[in-house]
Task: structure prediction
Amino acid sequence: MTYDFSKIIDRSGTYALKWDVADGELPMWVADMEFQAAPEIRAAIQRRAEHGIFGYTVPPQAWYEAYINWWKERHNFVMKREWLAFTTGVIPAVSTAVRQLTQPGEGVVVLSPVYNHFYISVEDNGRRAVESPLIYEDGAYRIDFDDLKSRLADRSNRLLVFSNPHNPTGNLWDRETLARVGELCDRYDVPVVADEIHCDLTDPGLGYVPFASVSEACARRSITCIAPTKAFNIAGLQTAAICVPDQRLRRLMKKGLSQADAAMPGAFAIDAAIAAFTEGGPWLDALREYLAENKRTVREFLREQLPQVSVSDAPATYLMWLDLSRAAADGSDLCGFIRRETGLYLSTGEIFRGNGSSFARMNIACPRDMLMDGLARLKRGVTAYDGCGGDGRCVR
Result:
C-alpha cells in the first residue's frame, strides 16, 4: 500500500492545541504530526466506535502481545508480560516515578537541554530539577560523564529522568553510552526513568537501543516509558505503557499510577495501540522515509539559503534543533520576532534549559509544501531581524 503524506489536512474546528493560534500563523512547535494516523488504526477506532458502548476498559492479552512482539521484532528486546502496565501517558508515568521514588526537596537529575515537561513533573511535585548539562561541540551533543557521576554520587539526588532518543537534540544514544549511564546509576543506587516515546522515529536503517536491554544493571534500575503515540500520531488517545523488570519498582509504579488515576485506559486506547503495533509497520516505515527527506530538505535549505542557522545531523525524532547563535544573541528574542513578523511559531530553546537559549525546536512532521512555507518564513524572519541590527526592535 502507498501512503500520501503530502496532503494538507485542515485541523481547524478540532480543538487542536497545536493550531490554537492566530489566523495566518504556522505552528511548528508542539510534537504532533500533520499526518492522518495509519488507516489500520483509524479502522480499528471506527470499529470500536460502531459498537456504541464505551464503558470501562482493561488491557487484554492482545495488548501485552502487541507491545512484546513489536519490541522483540523491531528493537531486539524481549519483555515479559508481568513487566508491562498500562498508563495514560509518558508524562503521567514520569510524574508518578518522581512522587514514588523521591521525597519532597530531593533532586532529580536530567541531562539538559531536555524536554521541558521533565522540569514540570519534577518541580510541580516539590522536587529539585538537577541539570547535568550535555557537552555541545562541533554541532553535536554528548554526555559529560564526570559531571553526571558527581550528580548521581550526591545522595540528595535520588532519580535520573533520561530521554532515549533525546528530545530536543535528536541524539540516538549508542549501547556503550547507555551502559555507562546504567553502571553509574547502579553504583549509586539511582533508578532511571527512560522516556523512549520517540524510539520508533529514527532515520531509515537506524534503530534505537532500549535502555533496559543493555545490561542487568540497566534492567534492574529501569522504568521504561513507551507508547505508540508519537510514532503513529495518536497522542490525543492517551495510550502508553511502562516496562519495569524490577518487582519492587514495578509495585511502586503500579500503586502510584493507580493513585494518580493514570492506569485506566480510555475506550479507544487499547484498540489503537494494538492496531498500531500489529498492523502499522508499513505505514511507519513509509513515514520514516518521508521524514528523512524532510530533514534533508531542511539541511539543504539552511546550507544554501540561511547559513547563519545550523542544525545537527541527529538521526532521531521529527524535531530539528536549530542553532541560532550566529543569527542572534538571544534565541528567544529571535523566535518571538519571527512569530510576530512571519507567523512561524517555533518552540523557544530556553524552555529546555541547558544551552537551549541559543536554539529553537522546529517540528518538521508535515507535508513538504507546509515545510517549505515554514522555511521561507524562517528565512524572512531571520533576515528581517538581522536588518534591524540583530535586536528586532526596528520600527515597521
